[in-house]
Amino acid sequence: MKFHKEGYTSLALVILFAFVSNALANYYDASPYVQWFLYILSAFLIIVILQFFRSPNKKIAMDDGTVLCPADGKVVVIEETIENEYFQDSRIQVSIFMSPINVHVNRNPISGIVSYFKYHPGKFLVAWHPKSSTDNERTTVVVKNQSNVEVLFRQIAGAMARRIVCYIAEQDVVKQGEEFGFIKFGSRVDLFLPLGTKVNVNIGDKVIGGKTVIATF
C-alpha cells in the first residue's frame, strides 16, 4: 500500500490546518474541550485523506481476451446503448460508481494503442444521474488492442469530484491494468464494449480495479 501522488497537496493542506488551528488554540489558551475537538478533527481529516488517496500495489494478470475493471466500486449500469461521441453505433455500456471510500486509481481495461482521447468540460451532476455520462466534466479514451478491437472508457466527475486526472494521450501504448488516471472524491467510470462481448458482472456487484474481469471478448 502506498500514498498516491495526487494526494500530496490535500495532505499538506490538512496538516497545515491541523498545525495552525492547534497552535492558535494553545496560544489563546482555549478550553480543553476546544483543544480536544481540534485534536480529534485534525486526526479525522488526516485519516480521511490517507484513506482516500491510498494506492494498493497489485499484481495484474494480463489477458488480451478479457476486459479488466478500470476502477474499484459498484456496477450500476449494464445496458445496450448508442455511443454518440466516437463509435456512433450500439455498444454495451458497463458503468462503475466509485464512492468516497473506494480506491480512486483508474486502470487500463485492455492493452493496446490509444486511438482517441478528449477532455470535456461540463457539469457536476451526481455520478449516478443518467445524464452524467454526457453532461458532466469527463475524459474519453479509446484503446485499440492487437486484434483491432476498440474499447472506450470514460472518467466522469460527480457532485463531489471536481478534478479528473488522466496521464495518457493519443498514440500512447498502454498495458492492461496499469494506472491511467485518478478522480478525486467520488465519481464514475463508463466502459463501452462491442456487441457480442460477454459481460461477467451483474448490476450491484462490487468490483476491484485491475482484478475483476468485467467482460470477455
UniProtKB/TrEMBL annotation:
The gene is psd. Heterodimer of a large membrane-associated beta subunit and a small pyruvoyl-containing alpha subunit. The lineage of its organism: Bacteria, Pseudomonadati, Bacteroidota, Sphingobacteriia, Sphingobacteriales. HAMAP family: PS_decarb_PSD_A (MF_00664). Its cofactor is pyruvate. Pfam families: PS_Dcarbxylase (PF02666). Binds 1 pyruvoyl group covalently per subunit. It comes from Sphingobacterium griseoflavum. It catalyses: a 1,2-diacyl-sn-glycero-3-phospho-L-serine + H(+) = a 1,2-diacyl-sn-glycero-3-phosphoethanolamine + CO2. Is synthesized initially as an inactive proenzyme. Formation of the active enzyme involves a self-maturation process in which the active site pyruvoyl group is generated from an internal serine residue via an autocatalytic post-translational modification. Two non-identical subunits are generated from the proenzyme in this reaction, and the pyruvate is formed at the N-terminus of the alpha chain, which is derived from the carboxyl end of the proenzyme. This is Phosphatidylserine decarboxylase proenzyme. Catalyzes the formation of phosphatidylethanolamine (PtdEtn) from phosphatidylserine (PtdSer).
